[in-house]
Structure formats: C-alpha cells, structure tokens
Write a structure and sequence with these properties.
The protein is an alpha+beta fold. It is built from 2 helices and 5 strands, in the order E-E-H-H-E-E-E. It has a 3-stranded antiparallel beta sheet with strand order 3-4-5, covered by helices on one side.
Length: about 130
C-alpha cells in the first residue's frame, strides 16, 4: 500500500520559489486525487492527444436543457470517466444539482488503498 500519491498540482502553476507546485494524497487528505477528478471531468475527448484515454463526455450536453434527465446523464458520464481514468478511486455516489444555469456535480469517492471517503464539487458548465 502506498503511503501517498504525489504529482503536479492542477491547475498547473509555479510556486513562490520558482518550482512547479506539487500536490499529494495520503490517508488523511486527498487534494491530489480531488484535482485529478476535476481534471478528468473537465477534459474533452481528444483534448489530450498523448493521454487520449483521459476524457469525459460531459461537454456534449452543453446545449441540452438543464433538467433531471440531463443531470442523470451527466452523472453517468462523470462516473464512467472517473472509473475508466483513475483506478485508485472507487465512486461511492454522484449527485448532480442545478445552480442557476450551471450544473454542479458532487462526487463522493473512496481511495481504494485507504478506504476513506472524500467529496468534491465540480462545476461542469453552463447548461441551457
């Protein structure tokens, strides 16, 4: 079992000392995994040519009505994308809700090697 997951922070930024900001996930806190989930959900198909498997189809619903059926489809697409792209994570639940013309997705997840449950809200965009 790894002690922590570590990688480049998302969004990419330079720290005060001039180096790349890194983030990590351990048994008590999960910022690196939260950043990874946000990046997966926000990546359109073929946007990352060298990492083509990292993608989410939520951008295809941008012109659909902001109703229960669209939110259910977005929840499905988010779960599918997370499960396909990040094997460290098990999705516990996904709860989409409307906030104005936007859809916010609350992702409850468990890091398999720690068995702790975490939560992250991701704004998936302006939906009509």
């Amino acid at each position: 079992m790894p002690d922590e997951y570590r990688g480049i922070s998302f969004p990419f930024r330079i720290g005060v000392k001039g180096g790349v900001v890194m983030s990590s996930t351990d048994a008590t806190d999960a910022p690196h995994t939260v950043e990874s989930i946000k990046q997966i959900i926000g990546t359109k198909p073929m946007e990352r040519i060298m990492e083509y498997r990292i993608k989410s189809e939520v951008s295809t619903y941008i012109f659909d009505p902001n109703d229960e059926s669209t939110r259910a489809l977005i929840a499905y697409e988010c779960q599918k994308a997370i499960e396909e792209c990040d094997e460290r994570v098990e999705v516990v639940s996904i709860e989409p809700y409307a906030e104005g013309s936007s859809i916010i997705v609350n992702v409850n997840f468990r890091i398999k090697s720690y068995q702790n449950t975490y939560s992250v809200n991701v704004k998936v965009g302006e939906i009509r």
